[in-house]
Amino acid sequence: MEIAAARVASIHYTLTGDDGRIIDQSSDSRPLTYFHGAGNIIPGLEKALAGKQAGDTLQVDVPPEEAYGVRNEGMVQVLPREAFQGVEKVEPGMQFQASSERGPLLVTVVEVDGDKVRIDGNHPLAGQTLHFDVRVLEVRDSTEAEKQTGRVAQD
């Protein structure tokens, strides 16, 4: 059976950056299982998996435009320290949920300089080409409940 819209696929993957460093990977005991065609994984990977079957392996290079987007420097801002009321110590790497005109946005503190805090609303992998090594483990028809939600039913 091939991976196609409204089917459920299970894959093992290793994601690396341009430098060859492992960014993420599935564990042997927990493959990534997703509902194909509902945007549950990045578009470039989903497109590359279409038509694959259990046992297939592939290497996929996904450009930023088909992954987490290109970096947008307009999403980097400097805020006054008092914008973080209730947080005792603000440090680089901390993440906060902010409100934007498009809804909630996860921002990362990238620098703290006295009373000024620089935040970045870009996804941490924005602007990067992502390199996937993938092995397809299983493809199955989705259940009616999965079709209704566009998500894999949890055991």
Automatic annotation (TrEMBL):
It catalyses: [protein]-peptidylproline (omega=180) = [protein]-peptidylproline (omega=0). It is found in: Cytoplasm. Coiled coil: none annotated. It holds the Pfam family FKBP_C. Its EC number is 5.2.1.8. GO terms for molecular function: isomerase activity. Residues 6-83 form the PPIase FKBP-type domain. Keywords: Chaperone, Cytoplasm, Isomerase, Rotamase. Also involved in hydrogenase metallocenter assembly, probably by participating in the nickel insertion step. This function in hydrogenase biosynthesis requires chaperone activity and the presence of the metal-binding domain, but not PPIase activity. Belongs to the FKBP-type PPIase family. This is Peptidyl-prolyl cis-trans isomerase. It comes from Luteimonas composti. The lineage of its organism: Bacteria, Pseudomonadati, Pseudomonadota, Gammaproteobacteria, Lysobacterales.
